[in-house]
Amino acid sequence: xxxxxxxxxxxxxxxxxxxxxxxxxxxxxxxxxxxxxxxxxxxxxxxxxxxxxxxxxxxxxxxxxxxxxxxxxxxxxxxxxxxxxxxxxxxxxxxxxxxxxxxxxxxxxxxxxxxxxxxxxxxxxxxxxxxxxxxxxxxxxxxxxxxxxxxxxxxxxxxxxxxxxxxxxxxxxxxxxxxxxxxxxxxxxxxxxxxxxxxxxxxxxxxxxxxxxxxxxxxxxxxxxxxxxxxxxxxxxxxxxxxxxxxxxxxxxxxxxxxxxxxxxxxxxxxxxxxxxxxxxxxxxxxxxxxxxxxxxxxxxxxxxxxxxxxxxxxxxxxxxxxxxxxxxxxxxxxxxxxxxxxxxxxxxxxxxxxxxxxxxxxxxxxxxxxxxxxxxxxxxxxxxxxxxxxxxxxxxxxxxxxxxxxxxxxxxxxxxxxxxxxxxxxxxxxxxxxxxxx
Length: 439
Fold this sequence. Notes:
By secondary structure, the chain is of the alpha/beta class. The protein has helices at about 20-30, 50-60, 75-90, 100-105, 180-195, 200-210, 210-215, 265-270, 290-315, 315-340, 345-365, 380-390, 395-405, 410-415, 430-435; strands at about 5-10, 35-40, 95, 120, 125-130, 135-140, 165, 170-175, 225-230, 250-255, 275-280, 280-285.
């Protein structure tokens, strides 16, 4: 684990819903102004699609089962080395896999092939990994009871190797594991929708990779910090005849937390509609609110990562101050775009609320005990001028020309122009921003 270069990994089987979690995290990164280096686990596959098809034919003739889950078809050692390198210096060597022809055109390769190995672009705040082996740990090269002669010598890593431990380098490990029948339904329908195989071929893939699933995917969920399990509320008894995937409002999400001390459960229950605790370390939330729940659960953790990184690099104060002003500007833009005429005070109130809410959130993550104040509660001059500019759209023209417009020129209005209490608001800007006449 690394304070300066944290790693977040989302792990699970194909068809488990990893892309849904990735999109939710992208929203969190944007909200917290975090620049992630996003890496997909498919780039660490050992073979192209053509090579794998030839290897699969050979394995079938010899009575063996291989899959993208197992060590024969993945660069496990290189994945662990990449995580370790990123944690040490914030960089590493990766490549990308082209899933479709359109994706291949963007990458400059054919579908089912890889780009050349290349270093990550510099300047990332953290590493976000999405794939099937983000929490892999195997004390031996393989846990299966088979002979080494089944594999070519160049990929038999059991001899003189300590094993693989990818999970040790991850700061936040999240597992995605739907109910097994639901996972199979999602995979079958996804494969058929892509047109890559028939339902029968998809079922054959599920059976073929079952051994690797048990030995290389399932053990990761015992090492995760957070497990997310989608549970259907409709009949999925026979996943092989299901005509459609259960909808979001036809399922619940069971979220398990490994460390109770890391989370404020009363606050989470208050902020996530319909959430309840089924056990001291297990929360149940409606699947429709999963994105909100991830923001409430993982947002504070990422904020702590960025605070620790800022302290390690000496940028903590500037980062928090920049984020505070960005949240204020974002709240102003959102409120002004949907506000009604005559409600300029709503713009100001939303800005002050965003300011106070962010400071409350940061203080709840232990950031209030810093030696220096994290940021002033009063927004900057440029931000306040932007607020008033938006407010001009909705107030009475005569009032705007006599009261608000002069405020946009602080030279004429004086240094304390923002302290005026003559605005026709239900409550004054001073009281909302936490400023008194004696301050």
